[in-house]
Amino acid sequence: MPSLNVSFSDEEMEGVRAAAAAEGKSLKQYLHDLGVREMHRKRFVAGATAWADRLRGEFDEAFPEEIPPSQRGDEAAAA
């Protein structure tokens, strides 16, 4: 099984150890899970973005008065 050596400053290592302890995990398990969680998070965000893109036209038709934040003028953003 592939493995990886990662370097941390003393301060960073202290923080990582504290985070692992807070979750009741070994340092090795915590770092493994952190990487896997990030991979899953990225997949979720990509899926959610694709889902929103597919439904954007339907939403715009159903709620024509809603203006996306990127298309609002300064006066609308201040309201």
What is the secondary structure topology, with strand pairs?
Elements: H1 10-22, H2 27-62, H3 74-78
Helix pairs in contact: 1-2
What does this structure look like?
The chain is mainly alpha-helical. The protein has a domain at 26-65. 68% of the residues lie in helices and 0% in strands. It has helices spanning 10-22, 27-62, 74-78.
Q: Terminal Cα separation, in Å?
A: 56 Å
Low-confidence stretches: none
Instruction: Specify the helix fraction band.
Output: 55-70%
Q: Over all CA atoms, what is the radius of gyration?
A: 21 Å
In N-to-C order, the SSE pattern is HHH
How would you summarize this macromolecular structure in one to three sentences?
The chain has 79 residues and is mostly helical. It has helices spanning 10-22, 27-62, 74-78. The chain has a domain at 26-65.
Provide the descriptors you would attach to this structure in a database record:
79 residues; mainly alpha; 0% strand
